[in-house]
Write a structure and sequence with these properties.
It is built from nine helices and no strands. By secondary structure, it is mostly helical. It holds the Pfam family Sec3_C-term.
Length: about 230
């Protein structure tokens, strides 16, 4: 109960990033050094639940570090700890920690990346074109589409990604080493959005020859060179 009280009293600096919380590493130390006895099972469960609740509490109160990052980093650490210690009574909590980590990783990726091609999301450009649509209307839409695509030259996309990398680097802590995992997930999400728009162009404007100003290969090169240059 002393450990639980300490968790509840943890104060987080408003000026520095949160990183791995002291009571998360404290639980790891306790679990590594404790004897494996049946009567400890209840103590483990009570303690890990308090750890979960307090990670969430700190994440909700954090001002400097985004909530998703606090959750992602700390639940990744808890998942790794429980995976290496193999405490059978905490198997459900191990799975839960993994789920929380992956959910918040995905949420952070989507919220940070946003819609890098958001101007293409204009519904009038991608009207489902049917035979009855007049040639004039289609010609207008093609023109409109070409204009919007020109707003996404590869150079601008790369510049936006470089700024994004710097922002992510500021949010994440070094000790959990998740920067490359996050960056790779962002690459996957960007490719997914790119393919979505490519599919819409092919479906709505078959045979028009309209393509994006950069390819998936270019995009992979942007992501890779940005990661290597920092």
């Amino acid at each position: 109960s002393g450990q639980i009280r300490q968790m509840e009293e943890v104060k987080i600096s408003k000026k520095s990033k949160v990183g791995i919380l002291p009571f998360v590493t404290g639980f790891e130390e306790f679990a590594k050094n404790a004897e494996r006895r049946g009567d400890l099972d209840k103590a483990y469960i009570k303690l890990i639940r308090a750890v979960f609740n307090n990670v969430e509490k700190v994440a909700n109160e954090s001002q400097k570090t985004p909530r998703d990052v606090v959750m992602m980093e700390n639940f990744h650490h808890i998942f790794s700890t429980l995976s290496s210690l193999k405490i059978s009574c905490l198997e459900a909590e191990r799975k839960d920690a993994k789920l929380k980590y992956t959910d918040h990783l995905q949420s952070y990726v989507i919220n940070s990346l946003g819609q890098p091609l958001e101007k293409l999301n204009v519904s009038q450009i991608f009207m489902e074109t049917r035979i009855e649509h007049s040639g004039y209307q289609l010609a207008f839409n093609k023109q409109e589409l070409r204009k919007v695509i020109k707003e996404y030259p590869g150079k601008e996309v790369k510049k936006g990604l470089d700024n994004l990398y710097k922002k992510v680097d500021k949010h994440l802590c070094e000790e959990e080493n998740l920067l490359q995992v996050v960056w790779h997930s962002m690459q996957d999400e960007f490719i997914r959005q790119y393919k979505h728009f490519e599919g819409l162009i092919n479906r709505c404007y078959p045979g028009s020859g309209i393509t994006m100003e950069f390819t998936i290969q270019d995009m992979l090169e942007y992501f890779s060179s940005i990661a290597q240059s920092h």
